[in-house]
Amino acid sequence: MRVFIGLGSNLDDPAAQLESALQALDALTESQLIQRSSLYKSPPMGPQDQPDYINAVAEIDTTLSAHELLAQLQALELAHGRTRRRHWGERTLDLDILLYEQLQIADETLTIPHTGIAVRPFVLYPLAELAPNLCVPGRGNIAELCLQCPADQLEKMEKTL
Question: Does residue 161 sit within a domain?
């Protein structure tokens, strides 16, 4: 299954956290990293008394179900020291399933496509780098969504892998 995962960090050397997470994604059971975006720097979406975020998007191929993948991603977050102190607060690593093929899931543990996919530049622009013609179920084409979502303070960084 073709899956896109959003990555974010703003603590403990965020760029290194993402590089480590990308390597861990490639090592996931029944999964393989296909490609990854550049890193992007952006101001925090939530409380402003925290450092800027570094974000990226990864495309993986997996035979895990969406819920099995979610469990694996949450384990990776914990392995990277993730603690949940406050809503939209600082974190060492955040991993979100953005898209899982063309599935639409909405249950108590998982929503796919990700609820913020169409309005968050730090998700849309890295995703457009990988798959500009991809269609987000119920929302439209990635390239078109980018036109409706200004990049604002999003800053593209160098790819380091």
Answer: no
